[in-house]
Every structure is written in structure tokens, then in C-alpha cells.
Amino acid sequence: MIPELGHYALVLALALAVVQAFVPLIGALYRDATLMRLATSTALAQFVFVAVSFGALTACYVTSDFSVANVFENSHSMMPLVYKFTSVWGNHEGSMLLWVLILSLFGAGVAAFGGNLPVRLKALVLAVQSWIATSFYLFILLTSNPFLRLPQAPFEGRDLNPILQDPGLAIHPPLLYLGYVGFSIAFSFAIAALIEGRIDAAWARWVRPWTLAAWMALTVGIAMGSYWAYYELGWGGYWFWDPVENASLMPWLAGTALLHSAVVMEKRNALKIWTLLLAILAFSLSLIGTFLVRSGVLTSVHTFANDPSRGVFILAILVFFIGGGLTLFAWRAPLLKQGGLFAPISREGALVFNNLFLTTACLTVFVGTLYPLALEALTGEKISVGAPFFNLTFAPLFVPLLVAMPFGPLLAWKRGDIYGAAQRLVAAFGVALVGLAATFVAHGAHGVLAPFGIGLAFFVMVGALVDLAERTGLFRLPLATVKARAAGLPRSAWGTAVAHFGVGVTVLGIVCVTSWASERIVSLKPSQHVSLAGYDVTFDGVGQRNGPNFREMVAHFTVRRGGVVIGAMDPAKRTFATRAMSTTEAALMTRGVSQLYLSLGDTNEDGSVAVRLYHKPLVLLIWLGAVVMMLGGALSLSDRRLRIGAPKPAAKSALQPAE
Amino acid sequence: MTRKQRRLVLIGGSVGVLAVALALVLFSLSDSIVFFNSPTDIAEKHPSPGTRMRIGGLVKPGSLERGSDLRIRFAVTDGNHDVTVRYQGIVPDLFREGQGVVAEGKLEPDGTIVADTVLAKHDERYMPREVVDALKKSGRWNEGEGHMPASTTQ
């Protein structure tokens, strides 16, 4: 009964989506406010029905209803309750249902909080949003129905892929989808603006909170996925340049560019056409990401099923929205009026620089990800493009971006003074040079990468602080004035500085891990020990443990530093009987922001066990930096909300905000 | 500067950056990509020793030998030809005889491959796609292979 209810609710959502895809358009055409306003109610109702549908599938999982094929394939009655919830999206069908749930959530968000939008724009946005929704409801109902019943209900399910039985599954996919799908709002706004043939600074202000929210979720979602891969796959790597990772990185790069170009559009009414294009591209790359992951073109942990009809269906959606969006862009964009003038050295110029490098970096990732697929399709030759390619292309493009980053916020709009900005950055240069020199002295001539990278990371971090100090007049003005200024500083300025600081933190983590991570791979017998980076790890022995749906071989290790016991590490190997599959559970010991990482290999007959021991200096900074970036986004978002809450912002749109 | 000059600066800058990016991409594509080979490809094409490559197939049953210091040696087969792979380190959880594997490393003059990376399947239900294709090419693939015996339902 419950699965049928969920199925039925999804069909109703589809019906509503079809209505919402056309009626507001007709309303917009004939300027009929009633028809246009209909979109608000249908968008809210759509969300309710999809939520019911998602709730129904969740109920099937929680009650272990194995008569539902999807539950049978991906669940087990002995699985801990939290994984019964998360396994709802730990499979192809369920993850697509999560996709449309978030899509309808964003649609409902625009309907509920878009009260200050012009009626026509709102109707168009919700209509476009509904086209996307319609195509994905159809995709689920026609090719990936999660509610299919089995003729005879089996007694036990086939269990969730053990790699996915991890708290990471609770956080990573929903955040990533919030990011991916959140860009659909920017896309819908862009298409609506193109249909209207009119776009102004207010448009950028309305799109900004949605883009910012999506970007924040995507930032943390990618970081979470990276941390998950780091501790679960047992290799100790945080980024593999795997096509599926690249699929999430590309929308992030385009989205980051979009955030920055939208600032120019909002403040200076320039870069309008480019911003529209980025809005279309960011969501297109999200769709390409979905296609790559969901179609079975790639083999990876993320690929749950290989059904060719699904791939073709998603490809059709992809072609329709990307092709349609870009065609509309090519046709309508020339009609839009050009915006303000600015000198190459100016805040706008810096943001254009940012956009240029971000999109170019995105392009190289795109080439590296899709070239092997294209080559195989054309010649049948199979190649793999791995880390060396991306290190050679992506890194050189990111370095100038990082060097320029502290300058941007210090330049004035319209016409900036780069020498003035450089003078104000003297402190940042100084710290960067000290860091560079100290690294060089401490570690000798082991290559220039590490000292240079450390210097760059310090430059970015201190540069962000300098920006704040300059704005508040710190060290120049009396403390009371500084406090008043700091309180008066727009939240978005704080947000910029915090987010940029976060980038520096991540860079610092990456440089340290890349330069100074050390590893030992050895075979140990009980009471033997291994030393690494000043730590001494002794193998005490192995024990067996029973989990709810697995058996676990746990190896006990004692960690000493300078002869003093500082803790224990218990890496394990789990064997899941249902899938005859085992996973390696690495043990992590956090020391400050550095980590000691221990994972198990094979055990031998003589009682020895193969272990991999890593020391990862400052590794946590990589992900903490992403969290700091998200906090910056949150600060900026809180600024927006205040402004949006101001009475009738639409009327002010012709004026430049005084900043 | 006039609007036209500014636009020229902008376009010139963009073209410059794109040209640099293109040069980087082409340089790395010629230098850092790795070709995938099946054991049959190696037997037929005789690549020159020292070439980096990926090789995929099944771990030949009975071929796995373990040495000291985590050294292992195994044969990768596509049913028609075998290639010996040597590796030192810890192999993935799902690395087993008779299962699909992809190894990346250098071809030695004696025809073996010294691998620095060994990848196995992520999930018991699926084979690495390269392996499936290699097996299909050698005619040793039947649909449904790689499925668990337990998955007889449906």
C-alpha cells in the first residue's frame, strides 16, 4: 500500500509539473496574473507530493519491505537504522528521487520566498523550473521507478553496498545534490530573463541568494565526499581526479565564477550576457555530472546500475536543456543592453580575471574528463587521463588566480590603483616571504614547490585579513572607530574575506600533505613495531567482533611518541556475508590538524598482517578550509537576506547601491 | 581608453589565457595519458619496453604468488593470452583470483609489467568496464558473468 501511495504521489507531482510548465507561460503571454500566480501554488504542491513520495520510499526502507524490488536490492533487515534511512539514496532510483525532491524544494522556495519578484519573472522562472522537473519525473517513472514490486517478497534483502554503509552517505549526496540542483534556479532565472528579453541589476540580486546557497552546499558536499574517500577507500588520498569527482568540480568552478560575475552585474550593471551564460553553463555542467554518474558511462563507486535506456534518456534531457538553453542564449542575448564601462585595472577587471581563469580551469577539467570518452567513442582506443594531466593543466591556471585573489577586494570599482593595492598588501607579501624562506631553510632544496606553495597560501590568507583590516581601519584608527566600522561593514564584505581566507587554508593543507606526507607499508607480526614521523606504532594482536550485518577483524595497535603511549588505533576489515564483500576500515588518530592513518592489508598464515601507515601533516586543513569557505558564503547570504527584506527593492533597481 | 580598446584588452587577455591553457592541455595529453591494453593487445602489438600502460583482465586462477615484503606476482588473462604483473604493496579488498583487475605500470623487457597501481572492482556486481570489453573482444564474456551466484532471483 505504501509503495503504491508513493508511486501515485509521484505521478500527481508529474501532473502538477506539466500544468506548471505551461499555464504560467500562457499567463505570461496574455499578461493574465491569475494564470501566472497559479505557479506559486503548484510549485508548493509539487514539493508536498514529492515529499510524500520520498517519505513512502523511506518508510519502505525503514520497515524493510522487501516486496519492493529497490528495497530488496539495497537493504538488509539487520542493517542499523541510520543506514536504512540513508540507503534510500544509496542506489540509482532512490538517488534520483532525492534529486527531484531537492529540485521541488528549490521550486517551492522560489514560490514561497519570491514574493518580491515581479509576477511575470516569477511565473517564467517557475515554469522553466517545472520543465526540468517534468523531464526528471518522467525519467524516474519510465526508467527508474523505485516503487516496483517483486511478485514474491523475499525474506531478506541483498544489503547495501558495504562501501556505502557509512555516515558519509548521510551527508555527502544530499549536500552535493543541493548544490547541483540549486544551480537549476540560476538556470531558470537565466532562461526567464532571456524569454523576457530584459535583464537588470535587480535580476542579479534575486538570483544571488539561490546561487550562493547552492554553492555553499556544493563546496561542503565536495569536501565531504573527498574526506569520505580519504578514510573509506584506504588509500589515504583526498582527491583522485576521478571522472566522477571532476563531474562535481566542474559545476563548482562554473558556480564560483557565476557568484563573482553576478557581483559585477549587481553592483555595476555590467557583464550581463556573460553572467547569463555562466548561469546556463553551471547547471549544464551539473546535468553533465548527473549524466556521467547515472548513465553507466563510467565505472565507479558512484555508478549504481548500468542500464543503457537510462543513459539515453538522461542524454536526451541533457541535449534538450543544454542545447535549448544555449540556442535561446544565442538568439536572445544580443537583444540585451550592454552595461557599464570599466578600466582593466579595477574591481570589475579583477572579477573578470577571476572568471577567465576559473572558466579556463573548468575547461581543462572538462577536456581531461571527456576526452577519453570521446576518443573511445571515435577510435575505440582506451586511455586513462589521471592526476599527471590535471596537475600539469589545472594547477598552473589556479596559481595566477590565487596570486590575484587578495588584490581583487582592494581595488576600487571602475578604476583601481594596483600600486596602492600592492602597498596595502605589504604585510601579506612579508608573511608570505617569511613562510617561503622558513620552509626553504627548514627543508632544504627539496624542490621549489613546497616553499612557493606555503608562501602562496600565506599570501592568500593574510591578504584576506588585510582586506578586513583596511576596511575597518585596524592599526590606523582608534579602537572605538574600528569597532564601529567593523559593525557597519556589510556582511558580504566579511563573507568575501572569510571565504577567501578559507581558500588559503585549503591550499595550505594541500601543499603540506603533498610535500610532507610520509608512508610506510610493512608486514607486522604481533609485538613488532613500525616508526614514522616520530610516532612509534606497535602491533598488539588481532581480535574478532560481530557487527549487526558484518563480521569484523580488528587489529589493535598502540601508538607511542618519545616512548610515551599516546593512544590506540584499531583498524579493521569487515566482511559482509550477504554480498560476500569486505571493506577496510582505516583507523585515524587526529593530532591537532594532522592525522596518523593506519589501514590493513592481507593477513598471512604466520600471523603477520600487512599495514599501511601514513602521516598526513595538516591534512584536516583541506576540508576545514572548505567549511570556512561555506561560512563565508553564509555570512554573505545573511547580508543578502537583509537587503531583500528591504521594502520594494525592485523599485530601487535602476539606482546603483551606494557601496 | 575607449570602449573599443577596453574590449580589445579583454578579448586579447582571454585569447592569451585560452592559448596557454590549450598549450598545457596538448602538452599534457601527449605526455601524461596512459593507454589501456588487454593481454591480447600486448601479445599482438609488442609495445616497446618502458611504456607506461594499463592492463586489464581477470587474475588467472592459480597464478597468484606472494613473496616477502608484500611483493606479489600474478597473471592477468583475457582467456587468450596472459601477462605477468609484479607489484609491491597492499592490493584492494576485492582483489582475488578469477576476478577482474586493472593494473597500471611499466612494461619490462622480459614482457612482465611492474605495476605501481592495482585496481579491483568497487562492487561485487560489476566488473571494470575495460575488463568487460577486453573479455568481450576475446570472446570469453558471457552476459551475467560477474554476478553473484546468490543473485539468481529476477
TL;DR of this structure?
The complex is a heterodimer of chains A (659) and B (154). Chain A is an alpha+beta fold. In chain A, the strands form 2 sheets. In chain A, strands 3, 4, 5, 6, 7 and 8 form a 6-stranded antiparallel beta sheet that branches. In chain A, strands 2-11-10-9 form a 4-stranded antiparallel beta sheet.
Could you name the key traits of this structure?
heterodimer, A: 659 residues, alpha+beta, 4-stranded antiparallel sheet, 11 strands, 12% strand, disordered C terminus, B: alpha+beta, OB fold (Dihydrolipoamide Acetyltransferase, E2P), 7 strands
Please provide a written account of the structure:
The complex is a heterodimer of chains A (659) and B (154). In chain A, 63% of the residues lie in helices and 12% in strands. Chain A has helices at residues 2-30, 33-62, 69-74, 81-86, 92-113, 119-143, 168-196, 201-232, 243-268, 272-294, 308-332, 347-379, 387-404, 418-424, 426-443, 449-472, 479-488, 491-516, 620-645, and strands at residues 383-385, 518-524, 529-532, 535-546, 551-561, 564-569, 572-576, 581-585, 587-591, 594-603, 609-616. In chain A, the strands form two sheets. In chain A, strands 3, 4, 5, 6, 7 and 8 form a six-stranded antiparallel β-sheet that branches. Chain A has a four-stranded antiparallel β-sheet with strand order 2-11-10-9. By secondary structure, chain B is an alpha+beta fold. Chain B has two domains: 1-33; 35-137, OB fold (Dihydrolipoamide Acetyltransferase, E2P), CATH 2.40.50.140. Helix content of chain B is 30%, strand content 29%. Chain B has three helices and seven strands. Chain B has helices spanning 3-32, 39-45, 129-137, and strands at residues 33-37, 52-59, 65-66, 71-77, 82-88, 100-107, 113-119. The interface between A and B is large, with 58 and 47 residues. β1 of chain A pairs antiparallel with β1 of chain B, so a sheet runs across the interface.
